[in-house]
Amino acid sequence: MLANYHTHTPRCNHAEGAERDYIEAALAAGLRVLGFSDHTPQYFPGDYYSFFRMRPEQLDDYVDTVLALRGEYRGRIELPLGLEVEYYPALFPRLLAELRTRPFDYLILGQHALGNEAGDAYSGTPTADAATLRRYVDQVCAAMQTGLFSCFAHPDIMPFGGDAAVWQAEMRRLCETALACQVPLEINLLGLGGGRCYPNEAFWRIAGAVGCPAVLGCDAHRPDQLRVPELEGSARAMAERCGVRVQETLHFKPLA
């Protein structure tokens, strides 16, 4: 791998290691680009807050830390600044307004919940309900159509046990939207190594038939997850079987 754009920090409450530890691990692994994309804060109304993301008051420290390290490591490795973002329609305008006041290079879409999260379903919950599957696809298609996301992390996160024809049609709709919006889909190495329901090879066969490009993402929550040659090899082999072209770097879409 030349680049990884999916890297977390302890601010999300489920990652380990300082930013410097990730950078040193990336250098040891031979990466030329390490993009930080920790879980975005969200500006929920009332007292609700989810446990798996940084809080709004941590955002500036995140930005300042990555930018300071970018200067320190200049000439050795590129350190773009990003976030992994859910598209929550009621919250997205406020979030985007906040992000546009800071020098973010890119956003990756990671749709961990439906609706606006509070009181709604986690995207990775097994379901046989076609309406839930369609809600997920509707929401991520709307996100990609904003033109603001540079890639789509673990698009195959939802385990669906219902009508296979419905699943295939919805995954094709997702892939066709990604292709039209020029949003590469991520083959998630953390899911591959952890035996999760993603990456789902049946999904990637659809992506290959549609012509979607992919990017490999470590989804690193520990520095050692940046050096995973066996997982990388398995992911590239799956992409080849499915007719999916793996692109090595991302083209960033501006937030303006």
What would a concise description of this structure say?
With 256 residues, the protein is an alpha/beta fold.
Mean pLDDT: 98
CATH class: Alpha Beta
Helix content: 25-40%
Q: What general form does the structure show?
A: globular
Instruction: Pick out the low-confidence regions.
Output: none
Structural class category: alpha/beta
CATH architectural grouping? Alpha-Beta Barrel
Q: Give the terminus-to-terminus CA distance.
A: 29 Å
Question: Within the CATH hierarchy, at the fold level, what is the topology?
Answer: TIM Barrel
Helical stretch count? 8
Number of domains: 1
Tell me about the biggest sheet?
Answer: 4 strands, parallel
Radius of gyration: 17 Å
Question: What's the order of the H and E elements?
Answer: EHEEHEHEHEHEHHEH
Widest sheet, order of strands: 3-4-5-6
How many beta strands in the DSSP annotation? 8
Task: Give the DSSP E fraction (strand runs of 2 or more residues).
Answer: 5-15%
User: Which oligomerization state do the chains in this entry correspond to?
Assistant: single chain
Structural account:
The protein is α/β, with parallel strands linked by helices. It has one domain: Metal-dependent hydrolases (TIM Barrel, Alpha-Beta Barrel), CATH 3.20.20. Helix 1 links the parallel strand 1 and strand 2.
